[in-house]
Amino acid sequence: MTADAIHSPGTAIRREWQRFTPRQRLMRYAFYLLAVAALVQSLRSIDIIPEFLEDAPAQVVDLFARMWPIDWAYYPKTVHAALIETIHIATLGTILALALATPVGLMAAVNITPWPALRLLAKFILVSSRSVNSLVWALLFVAVFGPGALAGTLAIAFRSVGFVGKLLAEALEEAHKGPIEALTATGAPWSSIVLKGYWPQVQPSFWSIALFRWDINIRESAVLGLVGAGGIGTALDDALNLLYWDQVALTLLTIFAVVIAAEIIVTVIRSRVL
């Protein structure tokens, strides 16, 4: 805040309020300049072929024309079984992630684990899980276990551990200290403190995290089949490779419908149950 004051007999002090100090304004202008410079450099480094860019609208129209009419008969043959497998991959992967992330989240919470080395190990696990994309995890597990739903389930689980564990650790650290101190004063063991002191406070957050992650996993598992990890992505990959655009349209429409349905289910459960 800056102020311009006029000191003269018989006049009041006039103050002019400004939201940012000169140093803050300089830093904001420097940030804007760097952002514009980064945008210009990014546009210069991207190799855009003008002919392809000009032809893009016509190609989009032609692509949608080849997608119509949609091959509805393809759904019971291939898409339905692949869709059920996708839901199974997302659900089992989420359950496995919850089982793996819970002890890691307990290790990462400052008020639960007093040993810095153990917390550092837990945070390393959480960061490692989040830093690797689900498609990369799928490629690794396909190489180990071969193509199929097992690789997709493990990819979803290992990708979700970092997300669930981090949010669980933050929820534990935000728990009220009153019940914990009361249980500690009575000489309750560590397991009772966790189950009776922390769990009732973090239980709503835990189930919200689980539902939110399941919703995300439905979307991510839909594309794992592109790398051989099972699910509806396999049907999409087959249709793309064979240039059956009417089947591609059906598969994409099915994925869109499932994602919307999962979003509605999660929203209803969170509003009525949690």
Could you explain the architecture of this structure?
This protein has ten helices and no strands. With 274 residues, the chain is mainly alpha-helical. The chain has one domain: MetI-like fold (Orthogonal Bundle). Helix 2 packs across helix 10 and helix 3 runs antiparallel to helix 8. The longest helix has 35 residues. The chain is extended. It starts with 21 loop residues before the first helix and ends with a helix. The model has no long low-confidence stretch (mean pLDDT 81).
**Total E-strand runs:** 0
CATH topology: MetI-like fold
CATH architecture classification? Orthogonal Bundle
Rounded Rg: 27 Å
Please give the count of helices.
10
SSE-based structural type = mainly alpha
Please give the domain count: 1
What is the molecular shape?
A: extended
Low-confidence stretches: none
- Biggest beta-sheet profile: none
| Helix/strand order | HHHHHHHHHH
List the topology elements.
Layout: H1 22-45, H2 50-67, H3 74-108, H4 116-131, H5 134-145, H6 149-173, H7 177-185, H8 190-221, H9 232-241, H10 245-272
In a nutshell, what does this entry contain?
By secondary structure, this protein is mainly α.
Please name the defining characteristics of this protein.
single chain, 274 residues, mainly alpha, MetI-like fold, 10 helices
